Amino acid sequence: LDPRLVSARASAMGARLTLLIIRDVTERERLDQMRNDFVANTSHELKTPVGAVTLLAEAIESAADDPEQVRRFAARIQAEAGRLGQLTGRIMSLSRLQSSDGLSGLRPVSLDEVIASSLEAHAVQADSAAVELVRGGDRGTWVLGDAQILIEAVGNLLANAIAYSPQGSRVGVGVRVEGEVVEIAVTDQGIGIAEADRERIFERFYRADEARSRRTGGTGLGLSIVKHAAQRHGGEVRLWSRPGRGSTFTVRLPRIEAPSADGTGKKKKK
Ligand code: ADP
Histidine kinase domain spans which residues (predicted)? Predict the structure, then answer.
């Protein structure tokens, strides 16, 4: 073996190793950065309701002899506490979805039940926004999944569809079987989403319409949860939208056959 060849190979390997190390360090730095951003954003989001509760509690103390004022402040404390509860709940869902265990056990899940539960959970919100909820499409479809997280994901899509829609409009939830895949589509006739925002709205804490999101109690985490929930189930989310006309979010999941009486869901065969 020519010693020059050996030394050329050694230096090429050395260069490759250096490149690998640099790549590894860059990836670690990127993950660290993401984690730091998440902590910073979360703390920032939590500060607002915590600050409000503190101020309102002080206001109650000084309004002690005015029962009407006390009632008003107490109602606002309840609302802020509700916001805090929703925010911490979503942060927990998201961190669970991003952890290595991800889903808490896979079972055959009926999409009829997922949709019925999500609709029920948002009936009051739809009522007070004067938006009509409509269930359409196929029945009797099943997936292998975590029912709780699927109910939460469909619920987040419903909550957004209602929040970004005008009074008197309709929000539809439909299911469609497409071969091996089952699609859950949530459609609204609301404000729509500009093309420039369509990728970014799935990022944590990204809001296309900051003021409206905060006014309607948004957390900026809803769609991030939907995306991770779909991916954890081996599926994906698609978005169609026309600004000023409305949006359709579609969650596509691998379909299974209705489980037999013993409760085992088998993968659908062609
Ligand atoms: P938020 O809690 O703010 O709604 P999401 O993660 O659920 O957070 O959504 C991110 C952003 O995407 C929202 O702030 C809003 O700007 C936009 N968005 C989500 N769903 C809709 C919809 N159905 N119609 C219009 N805009 C939407």
Answer: 41-257
Cβ of residue 159 lying under 6 Å from some atom of ligand 1: no
User: Measuring from atom 19 of ligand 1, which residue has the nearest CA?
Assistant: 160
Give me ligand 1 centre to Cα 129, in Å: 16
| Distance from chain centroid for Cα 40 | 19
Q: What is the DSSP string of 222-247?
A: HHHHHHHHHHHTT-EEEEEEETTTEE
Residue 82 in contact with residue 141, Cβ under 8 Å?
A: no
Q: pLDDT digit string (tens) for 64-119?
A: 889 999 999 999 999 999 989 999 999 999 988 988 777 777 899 999 999 999 99
pTM to 2 decimals? Answer: 0.84
Find the 210 Cα to ligand 1 centroid distance in Å. Answer: 9
Are residues 123 and 89 in contact, defined by beta-carbon separation less than 8 angstroms?
Answer: no
Q: Which two tokens stand for residue 158?
A: 């419903």
Q: How remote is the CA of residue 186 from the centroid of ligand 1, in Å?
A: 13
Closest by CA to 163, choosing from 90, 223, 227, 74, is 223
